[in-house]
Amino acid sequence: MPYIAVNTVQKLSPAIKEKLKAELGRLIAIIPTKDEKGLMVDFSDSHTIYKAGKEVDGAFIDLRLYNKSELEFKKKFTQEVFKLLQNELGIKPEAVYLNIAELETWGGGGDLH
Q: What pLDDT sits at residue 25?
């Protein structure tokens, strides 16, 4: 089950959350064995984000994956997420940060995998 947390300074309407959720569901399939059926998306909007001590109009994306994935797929996913945020929110790629955590264990469905 992949997990994507989207933290942004912008206030997101329900319609834009739905659009971003759908697009992230489509984009997660870039990574083999991942798909929208297992995807959890978490939006945290209206945040204050600072970089180099200055407030920025930006976003931080946290992607968590169960097990490791190939670098080429993670790179493509990252590039597409940057494009998505620029197209939908007007946030320039240089103001977006994304980390990917690949975890060996994952709890879900009442068990640890």
A: 98
